[in-house]
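As the next step, I wrote out a protein sequence along with its fold in token form, included below for the reader:
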Amino acid sequence: MTKTEVLVVVAVIAALAAMLLPALLAARRRAGRISCAGSLKQIAISSWAWTEDHNGKYPMQVSVNDGGTMELVGSGLVYPHFRAMSNELSTPKILVCFEDTKVMKEMGKVMAAHALARGTNRGYSPPFFPTNFPVSYFVGVDANTNQPAMFLSGDANLAVGGKPAKPGLFSLWTNSPVTWAKPLRPYHGEGGNIVLVDGHVEQVGNVRLRELLTQSGVATNRLAIP
């Protein structure tokens, strides 16, 4: 090929890349949103399956003596509520959003530690849901099957009045100025994901987030933040 032909080929490739890159990025953003929404949908389905065997109650409303987590709500811990549903959840990995880089790193450490233990001890059987397994999503500890618009779970990067929610119990009132603290970018864009008791998963921005809170049907939504 002559030098001119090479330059023409390079120019064509550059032009194609410039045209295709926005489409590829958009497709990747959609894939990220779909993945996270799919995880929250699975959480909703698993929660519903658990209530079917426990008189319509979530783990947070059932005593630990009966396999629930009611006595643990006050601790503000998140993982016990999900661990109670380990038989319904296909894998604890769905509790980690791949855009949540901090939690992804923590998950890697936990999985690596159990892999090492399994490698050095042939009799070792790693638990399905380790107590130190990281979680990306909050749990609505007061979620009730009779209140379909209440918050069941969602991205935990919330803030009120510009102050990020700290790990533990976090109360949201209908007039709370709630926003997303640090949107999980690039695939979540400026919003985040919420799943309601009725199983409806929605990616919302700050305005819609506050609308959902107002429409929840209760004065307070208490959330366990990881």
Residues 35-97+134-225 form one domain.
